[in-house]
Amino acid sequence: MKLLRSQAGFTISEIVVVIALSGFLMAIAATGFSTFFAKFNELNKITELQRDAFNCVQKIKNGIPIGTGSGMKFSGVATADSVRFVGINSIPPSSQNIILYPPKTSVEHSGDFVRIYYDGTYVRATYLNGTMQPASPLYLFPAPGRNNVTKVTNLRFTQANDSREPTRVITVLLEARVLLRKDIKSHKFIYKNVSYQTKMTIAMK
After folding, report:
1. Which of 144, 169, 174, 146 is nearest to 158 (CA)?
2. Which of 2, 18, 45, 163 could cross-link 92 (Cys pair, CB 3.0–4.6 Å)?
């Protein structure tokens, strides 16, 4: 004689409960992933801001590339023979616009210069190297782009040595910010700010 065994199954109520729990867990997971990627995106923006601002300061110091191939050279504060502050409005001299003059090597290069300035949105540069000059000013920071979330808020060059003497040392201040997000509750934009300040020495004669 065979023993009758009861065959257990799922009732409709149990299935509904399982589906509800699965949906709840999936919703929590989706929220967690959404928060993770949002934070990751913010950290990425902050990293790019710090990196690009630092690279801009280094370009001002070590020089922007001029020329191509074996004839390429770098011209900046560290390679300049003298500097002129444009639009001086204080003592010591301080400006958002400087012109750097490299050592004169020949008559052809007697008028060479590099100009670095803040146009209200970007840090830009232009130069004259013999007869070579860019068709339009170069972008140093940030890189130009539509709907750019990074913005320079201040660039200032200040004479750091005794103002009664020719400028040999300058203080460079670069401040910028990046848009992280818009707060849902307050509807305010949340930014991350960065500030770099350093002294640079003009090349000695």
Report:
1. 169
2. 163
Structure tokens at 1: 């004689």
- Tokens 């149990």 sit on residue: 14
What's the sign of the alpha-carbon dihedral 170, 148, 153, 128?
positive
Long-range contact list for 139-142, CB < 8 A, 24+ apart? Answer: 140/56, 140/59, 140/60, 140/64, 140/116, 141/52, 141/53, 141/55, 141/56, 141/174, 141/176, 142/52, 142/176
Neighbouring CB atoms inside 10 A of 128's CB total: 15
User: Could you report the per-residue pLDDT of 52-106, keeping only the tens digit for each?
Assistant: 999 999 999 999 999 888 888 999 999 999 999 998 777 889 999 999 999 888 8
Nearest to 117 by CA among 143, 98, 101, 138: 98
Q: How much is the pTM?
A: 0.79
